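Request:
You are asked to prepare a plain-text protein record giving the amino acid sequence and the backbone structure tokens, at your earliest convenience.
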Amino acid sequence: MKIYTSIISLAVLLLFAQVTFAQRTIKRVLFFGNSYTAGLPELISKLASSAGDSLIFSDASAGQTIKDHATSPSSFTAISSGHWDYVVIQCQSQEGAFRDAYVNANVFPYAKILADSVRKYNLCGKTMFYMTWGRKYGDASNCNNYPPLCTFEGMQMRLRTNYLKMGFDNDAFVCPVGMAWRHARTNSPSIELYDADESHPSIKGMYLSASTFYAAIFEKSPLQVTHTVGLNSTDLDSLKKAANFIVFDSLATWNIKYDTLVNDVFYVALYDTVTFINDTKSLSWVQWDFGDGGQSQDISPVHIYGRADTFAVNVSSYVGCHQLDTTFEVITTMYEENIPDSAKDTTVVKPNAILELEANELFVFPNPCKGALTIVSDFGAEQSGNYSFLLFNVNGIEVMRANLQGSHTRLDLSSMQSGVYFYSIQNGSKQSIKQKIVLLE
């Protein structure tokens, strides 16, 4: 794939930038559960806040079974009143692991009732089923009647099977908390996830559950979370890695299909006059806040600032029912006739300097790709070592960096999860405009 980059040529000072910063994410989530949900939304909120995100939530976990939730009028009042991004649904901790006859009669029909209601009242909302964990040594009270419940492993795999069926049957996401517990029990057995009753979570188990939800809800790695709830760094690292690995190892397994919408925003600054360009696909409407009190709903407005300064600009792009928010800084200068243009050029800071690549200088293929990517350049062997290939996820977070090696560089992407990414080429402090690439399973 060829990269073409063009910058408007002007005799006077010009600043051109592409805005692709990672942004604060706000999610609205309604929870239906029982004692396994108690305190969980609050902890997810604290984890999100420590990573710069925000969870607005309501906990409607008054019932004990999924049937209780699906037959309570208050459930539908809550579902219809919140414009929720996600409605989290949890079965009573044992019922999701029972025999097929019980689950078919008492779980699956009510999961559908709730998921249908979420779809009806929340245009962009999704149901997310909360896959819980098996009891520490299995379910002793039901073991004699159903042998798979006699061990943690047997109970956990029953929960996995039935929650996945609920997810796929109802076009819903599954938050694989129980599988994160299984991973942590296997790889970090010294971490006690259970409370004294060997069923409910300890604070470490609660942290693992919240980390898994943070990853699934916010589409971001919990490794960036800084809230600790007083746990030591070794345990925190293990718990966050377990959540991160399970959620993102295979999103398709959990029926998680994130929207890959990108707020495609640029600006061109000419002294005090800034042209803002919104190139986001399928825009419904847009709201600009220029940081000096001025606003506009034009797609690509021109704004004149009254002073030389740094302004925090926010743009909200609306694509259907989705809102994409981006905040970035714009630096303005004032035109002064008495100062030569050459002097002005040396005093202006140019953030996000654009690396200009001529046609035929660089090819990145195939796109889409499976597992490996080839980069061919004509920079020359001596120059190529000065260039780096940068890969970003849809949230603008850099997930890979590699130096170019000669005219041909082959990159192994087999460890990356499938999805939409963006790449750019960097030389020193300059980067080329990001280009989209799709990684397939």
